Automatic annotation (TrEMBL), chains A, B:
This is GntR family transcriptional regulator. SMART domains: HTH_GNTR. Coiled coil: none annotated. Residues 14-82 form the HTH gntR-type domain. CDD domains: WHTH_GntR (cd07377). SUPFAM superfamilies: Winged helix' DNA-binding domain.
Length: 128, 128
DNA sequence: CCATGTGTATTAATACAACAATACACATGC
DNA sequence: GCATGTGTATTGTTGTATTAATACACATGG
């Protein structure tokens, strides 16, 4: 697997290691990273994105603690076998729940009608 | 105005002073805080939410720099006169744009169909 | 065996957030 | 005038988060 699977934004307020962990969570849950698949090495990812290897290692370590990844000694990190294939839609939707709740709260503070927000989001998602 | 207008989450990763600034932005843009309205004093807010007065003062100071608030010497802080009434829907929707883009990106990584996400968000917003 | 590839423990540097304790400038109202 | 109410500047301390630099242990493959 190529080091380019991750979309790192070094300028973002969100810490790099957390960006990686969260993308791993979603890519695995969505099935874009298949079970058993070998991930790019920490040095590959670090070199490609010009970040420190330890930052990547930290992300991989957290993902392993969460049970997302498995460590293959001498080989590297792979998607855990437990996570065979794609999770259920309900399970994946749950990963968006908190973010959707935030959107709803902010929309209410902005006194924006729900229909308007939904139309806008629909347009953004459709165009991707 | 009561000190309870702010919904502070001390455990959140987002800094308290920034929570306050962002809520001010939205509440003013949405018209829930009317122009000229007097805000709760820093000591009131700090006491009510059990946080440090200087943290509130910092938030008010930033909001003043942004032109959201006006300082009334000896009285306190008030919503700036410039912000008379509610902003246009387009202007308010723009404040949600970045967050909606994030939702779209995450949904794609999760391989969730747009309709499912929209239905879920609609339910959350409707129930509020 | 040994070069090369894994991941990572350790230490340090830097920055940030929040709190605490003062003290100050200003306006209001008795 | 003076007590009381604003916001704020200042200084210091504490705890934490993030990233970086270095060195190490281990497995693989010839």
């Amino acid at each position: 697997m190529d080091a380019s699977i991750f979309a790192i934004q070094p300028t973002s307020a969100e810490p790099i290691y957390r960006q990686i962990v969260e993308q791993l969570r979603r890519l695995i849950a969505g099935g874009q990273l298949a079970s058993g698949e070998l991930l790019p090495s920490v040095r590959d990812v670090a070199g490609f994105h010009a970040i420190n290897p330890m930052t990547v290692s930290r992300a991989y370590g957290i993902a392993e603690t969460e049970g997302l990844l498995e460590r293959l000694r001498g080989k590297g990190m792979a998607v855990a076998a437990m996570h065979r294939g794609t999770q259920s839609q309900a399970h994946r939707l749950a990963l968006l729940e908190a973010q959707l709740a935030d959107v709803a709260r902010h929309a209410q503070e902005l006194e924006l009608p729900a229909e308007l927000v939904l139309r806008r989001l629909s347009k953004i998602m459709g165009g991707s």
